[in-house]
Amino acid sequence: MYKEKTIGVVVPAYNEELLIGRVIETMPEFVDVIVIVDDCSTDKTSSIVEQHQSESKIRVELLKHQTNLGVGKAIATGYIWCRDHKIDVSVVMAGDGQMDPDDLESLITPVVSGEVDYAKGNRLITGEAWKKIPHVRYLGNSMLSLLTKIASGYWQVADSQTGYTAASLRVLQTIQLNQIYPRYGVPNDILVKLNIYNFRVRDVEIKPIYGIGEKSGIKPIRMIPQLSWLMWKLFVWRMVQKYIIRDFHPLIFFYLLSGFLLGLVSPVLFIRLIYYWTTVGHIPPINTLALMLTLITGLQFLLFAMWFDMDYNRNLK
Question: Model's pTM, two decimal places?
Answer without folding.
Answer: 0.89
